[in-house]
Amino acid sequence: MAAPLPIAIRLRSLRMPLRRALAAAAQLKVAAVEIDARTELRPGELSQTGRRQFRKLLEDLNLRVAAIGFPTRRGYNVVDDLERRIDATKDAMRLAQELGATVVVNQVGRVPADSADPEWPIMMAALTDLGGFGNRVGATLAAETGSESGADLARLVAALPDGALGVTLNPGNLIVNGFTPLDAVAALGRNIVYVHAKDGIRDRARGRGEEVPLGRGMTDFPAILGALEDFGYRGFLCVERDGADDPVYEVGQAVRYLQQLY
């Protein structure tokens, strides 16, 4: 069996102010954290001195930054405010690089069904621009799975220049939206650069899904880890838990669940 993958925590899942969340993550003995660049550490409000101080805080807590989250209200297929959205994403990519991370996570928007859709060239141009910028600064935009099948997202990745767009695998989001995580891994393969460890269930009778604590849903994590290993994945497993009644406890339980898989 391969060595265990490093475990991270999405700090937003702890629902605490940033410094308290970092301290809680350190107490849980994880390797790294994912920081939200819209609500927790905004690039435009952080001076170079502030960035150095934050790196020192992470070092003191023995933590790294696994990724920067940058959720936007609209995708890169929507022309309204697109240039501002692209510029803000580039700021998040610069921040990631300065904090030692190589991944910026966002949902890129609805993937058009084919190239005849007027949104297709809009999305292609935006993601090509961001991909080129990311190659220069050393940070990859990683589209989070869930709003479409793995095959549809793979079609988008394949249409872009090599390395322009990575993928964040989120099994829970896929299940909630009626897709199969293992099919997504098979379709996306080596394009997966980051993993959100999130679980879900799907009620076929009611046609809807919901998030559940890690290990209690329909996600076959041992099988997913095996499939990722076949593709040579050595990145982070980042715990994401959105609907916890007791966030610190449930995130801690999720960390222990992942540790026990090895």
Number of domains: 1
**Name of the CATH class:** Alpha Beta
Label the CATH architecture.
Alpha-Beta Barrel
CA radius of gyration is 18 Å
Total number of helices: 9
Strand content: 15-25%
Which spans have pLDDT < 50 for at least 5 consecutive residues?
none
At the fold tier of CATH, the topology name is TIM Barrel
- What is the H level of CATH, i.e. the homologous superfamily? Divalent-metal-dependent TIM barrel enzymes
Note down, in words, how this protein is organized:
The chain has 262 residues and is α/β, with parallel strands linked by helices. It has one domain: TIM Barrel (Alpha-Beta Barrel). Helix content is 41%, strand content 18%. The protein has nine helices and ten strands. The strands form two sheets. An eight-stranded parallel β-barrel has the order 1-2-3-4-5-6-7-10, surrounded by four helices. A two-stranded antiparallel ribbon has the order 8-9. Strand 3 (64-69), helix 3 and strand 4 (103-106) form a beta-alpha-beta unit. Helix 3 packs parallel to helix 4 and helix 5 (150-159) packs parallel to helix 7. It starts with 6 loop residues before the first strand and ends with a helix. The model has no long low-confidence stretch (mean pLDDT 95).
Brief synopsis:
Helix content is 41%, strand content 18%.
Q: What are the main properties of this structure?
A:
alpha/beta; two-stranded antiparallel ribbon; 262 residues; 10 strands; 8-stranded parallel barrel; TIM Barrel
Give the helix/strand layout.
Layout: E1 7-10, H1 18-27, E2 32-36, H2 48-60, E3 64-69, H3 82-98, E4 103-106, H4 119-137, E5 140-144, H5 150-159, E6 166-169, H6 171-176, H7 181-188, E7 192-197, E8 199-203, E9 208-212, H8 221-230, E10 237-239, H9 247-260
Parallel strand pairs: 1-2, 1-10, 2-3, 3-4, 4-5, 5-6, 6-7, 7-10
Antiparallel strand pairs: 8-9
Helix pairs in contact: 3-4, 5-7, 7-8
